[in-house]
């Protein structure tokens, strides 16, 4: 195996890009999950099947752009919440919160709970706006997220689009 430091520059850049994409998507999937709009809720497997069968190239691009925008908000919110929790000697890994799961907010000490809730709410609102600005509904975004997690082809299409968008920057 070639040492990373002796790889040609183009190969290193490509490897870093892939690692960045994997990091962005992995970190982002752990936090994101936009509240779905009102309507019929199908079982997750049925939602994923519907999303997989009909995800257009345009939707893949919209989704990838939304992911990149959301990741900026996620990083900022994560850092702010982590810093707040450190003031009460609590590790951020001790709680598991997302836009769709705020049940753990009660585990945050009262003295900082309001601040954490405000940051999380702002993050969720900004994320929803980013998704809508890219032309997707929150529901469709979540369907594509489900498909991303369960279908290798969808995963690869999204990863390729993220790489393309990052290389274009």
TrEMBL record:
Start and end residues of each DUF4168 domain: 56-158
Pfam families referenced in this protein's UniProt entry, alphabetically: DUF4168 (PF13767)
Source species, domain of life: Bacteria
Name used for this protein in its record: DUF4168 domain-containing protein
Organism of this sequence: Leptolyngbya iicbica LK
């Amino acid at each position: 195996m070639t040492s990373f430091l002796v790889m040609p520059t183009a190969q290193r850049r490509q490897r870093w890009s892939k690692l960045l994409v994997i990091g962005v998507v992995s970190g982002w999937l752990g936090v994101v999950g936009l509240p779905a709009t009102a309507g019929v809720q199908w079982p997750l497997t049925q939602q994923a099947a519907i999303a997989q069968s009909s995800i257009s190239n345009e939707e893949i691009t919209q989704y990838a752009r939304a992911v990149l925008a959301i990741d900026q908000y996620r990083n900022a919110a994560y850092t702010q919440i982590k810093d707040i929790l450190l003031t009460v000697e609590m590790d951020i890994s001790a709680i598991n919160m997302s836009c769709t799961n705020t049940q753990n907010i009660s585990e945050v000490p009262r003295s900082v709970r309001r601040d954490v809730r405000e940051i999380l709410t702002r993050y969720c609102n900004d994320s929803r706006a980013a998704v809508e600005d890219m032309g997707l509904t929150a529901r469709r975004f979540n369907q594509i997220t489900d498909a991303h997690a369960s279908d290798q082809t969808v995963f690869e299409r999204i990863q390729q689009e993220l790489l393309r968008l990052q290389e274009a920057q």
